[in-house]
């Protein structure tokens, strides 16, 4: 009897080991003691880490709880950059080598992995990903880099002329041989994209690979992308990534539903329930944004004007940042000087609202607690508020 029990425990332990993927990540140019996180990728959701490890002697070891193929994104904790984009599944013992590459954009540092120096061993799943689309994407990145390097001079000159409103110089540059060559290069690049990607998606429509590849390729989805989902096999549609893709191409609206209450975590670390911030108000506008999101920043002047016009009539705005970096968020707050409550999302608020792209806005009727408008921006937001707050 004792032998049977021990055997059962042994089998359970073995099954537990094989129900995960072991990844040893070797990282150059990141200091020992740095925390590295792993999260599920290609879901278009604000995923929380499924594992975390600290670099020691340049290595971080992860036991990832995956039972079927998943894309895993490795990041320096608290940084929006991505060190490694790895496809793996249960039972694999992966070794990956990456070299950090730091990029500063709008005063914020992003720690990415240098794709040209990346190596992955002992992951048949990742090798298959590279064959299907990963290598092609890497080629496109190199192609795009060559494009920017080759035409940097003329691009810089045109941008400078645009900023100076020097239309004569802009026109002259656009007629130059270098600019015409750039246009030709650009046209060939997008022709390649439009021809190659659909072929690869169609060739893999019987399995999860096609929806994964679509999620891995596009930064946002429109109704035009629905055919990519509609043509999938039932097995592909019912896969994890098939379900993720469906949420993007056939999103469910929130208008008419009760809003999900949340806590606003401000820059001082204080949490305030949203219900307290809207007490005595008629409508609440929940604004999802991030410091790195240019359309979000471009919308701020309009929001400030809306707030000035309607705050005394019963409008409250609550902005929720999706920044991973507290420093980047606080820097943006200092620059923008937003006069309404602001918080950063550390608890999955965006997930509750299925936020796929930003800026994303939800207008709530405080009296009923129901959402009466979503993704209202610019003139459409002003018109809706004029209708509600006469």
| Major beta-sheet overview | 5 strands, mixed
Rounded Rg: 24 Å
Encode the helix/strand succession as letters.
Answer: HEEEEEEEEEHHHHHHHHEEHEHEHEHEEH
Number of helices: 14
Strand content: 15-25%
Organism: Segatella bryantii (Prevotella bryantii)
GO biological process, one term: cytochrome complex assembly
Domain Thioredoxin: 253-390
GO cellular component, one term: cell envelope
Describe the structure.
With 390 residues, the protein is α+β, with helices and mostly antiparallel strands. It has three domains: 21-120, Immunoglobulin-like; 129-250, no CATH class; 257-389, Glutaredoxin (3-Layer(aba) Sandwich). It is 43% helix and 24% strand. The protein has helices spanning 2-18, 124-150, 152-163, 167-174, 177-203, 209-217, 226-230, 234-237, 240-249, 274-277, 294-310, 326-336, 349-352, 378-388; strands at residues 21-28, 35-40, 51-54, 59-64, 70-76, 84-88, 93-105, 108-113, 119-121, 263-265, 271-273, 283-289, 315-321, 342-344, 360-365, 370-374. Strands 1, 4, 7, 8 and 9 form a five-stranded mixed beta sheet that branches. The chain has a five-stranded mixed beta sheet with strand order 14-13-12-15-16. Helix 3 (152-163) packs antiparallel against helix 4 (167-174), helix 5 (177-203) runs antiparallel to helix 6 and helix 11 (294-310) runs parallel beside helix 14. It is globular. The N and C termini lie far apart (79 Å). It comes from Segatella bryantii. Residues 1-19 form the signal peptide. Residues 253-390 form the Thioredoxin domain.
